[in-house]
Amino acid sequence: MIKLSSLTIGKSAVIREFAKSDLHIKLMEMGCVPGETVKVEKIAPLGDPICIIVAGYNLSLRKTEADHIWVEEVAV
C-alpha cells in the first residue's frame, strides 16, 4: 500500500484505509471511502493540491490530506 499523495497523474488506486486522525471523517463525507476507486487527474505545479476523481466527481485535496489515505494501485 502507498499514500494517495504519491500517485502520479493518470494512475488509479483503490482506497484501503486511513491514517489515524480525525480527518478520516471529513474524507469519508467527501466520498473517499474504503473500497472506492480514485484516479489522479491533475497535480498543481508545486505539487499541492492534487485533483482526484472519486465517486464520479472531481475533488481537490491538499497533499497533507492525501497523506492520510492509503491506497492500493490498480492496473488499468
UniProtKB/TrEMBL annotation:
The keyword Transport does not apply. Residues 2-73 form the Ferrous iron transporter FeoA-like domain. It comes from the Bacteria. SMART domains: FeoA. InterPro entries: Fe-transptr_FeoA-like, FeoA, FeoA_core_dom, Transcriptional_repressor_C. Keywords: Iron. Signal peptide: none annotated. PANTHER family: FE(2+) TRANSPORT PROTEIN A. This is Ferrous iron transport protein A. It comes from Chitinophaga alhagiae.
